[in-house]
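User: Design a sequence. Structure:
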């Protein structure tokens, strides 16, 4: 078995340093906007995990986070269009300011589904924060309130994002060799 996944990467789209800088900018924006408010982050498993971990470490203010599990891709490169709930949230978000955190907003199906699901717990508001925004593919009317990078329609891996469950652990975002 080959033990270096980097040989599968065609090119690096976003370096560790670019991501680090962007995440701190996002922290500053969110920190300002939520001053004096309660903040509950709901992160979408598993793609958001690295982003969430870096994001939350930028804050000094109180905050809570929890995870929701959904799946739509079934491991490949093409979305099936069907979103399924795999893991419910376990904290009470009623009357709270919820910020949904995900790796990437593509067609909008995932975050549209998540927003709709969270609505039934009657939070005060729901906002969306993604690291990467692929606007060109949007099929559902969902917008990110906070986004780090806008990218064209390329399939990316790393920094939480997978191809067939691999590559999530790369500290940068890259494009796979075909
Ligand atoms: P949407 O439901 O908006 O089409 O897609 C959102 C989800 O699809 C993301 O949370 C992510 O898991 C996955 N996804 C969308 N685009 C990409 C991509 O370029 N690379 C990877 N690895 N996953 C993607
Ligand atoms: Mg995801």
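Assistant: Done.
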């Amino acid at each position: 078995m080959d033990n270096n996944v980097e040989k599968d990467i065609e090119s690096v789209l976003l370096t560790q340093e670019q991501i680090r800088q962007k995440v701190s900018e996002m922290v500053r924006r969110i920190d300002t906007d939520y001053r004096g408010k309660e903040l509950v982050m709901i992160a979408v498993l598993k793609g958001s995990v690295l982003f969430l971990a870096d994001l939350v470490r930028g804050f000094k203010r109180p905050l809570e986070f929890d995870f929701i599990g959904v799946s739509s891709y079934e491991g490949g490169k093409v979305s099936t269009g069907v979103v399924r709930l795999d893991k419910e949230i376990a904290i009470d978000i009623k009357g709270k300011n919820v910020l949904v955190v995900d790796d990437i907003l593509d067609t909008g199906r995932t975050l549209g589904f998540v927003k709709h699901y969270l609505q039934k717990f009657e939070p005060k508001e729901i906002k969306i924060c993604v690291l990467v925004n692929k606007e060109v593919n949007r099929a559902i009317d969902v917008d990110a309130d906070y986004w780090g990078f806008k990218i064209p329609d390329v399939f990316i891996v790393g920094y939480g994002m997978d191809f067939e469950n691999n590559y999530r652990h790369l500290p940068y975002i890259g494009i796979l060799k075909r």
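The chain has a mean pLDDT of 95. Strands lie at 9-14, 40-45, 64-71, 84-87, 97-105, 125-133, 146-150, 156-157, 173-176.
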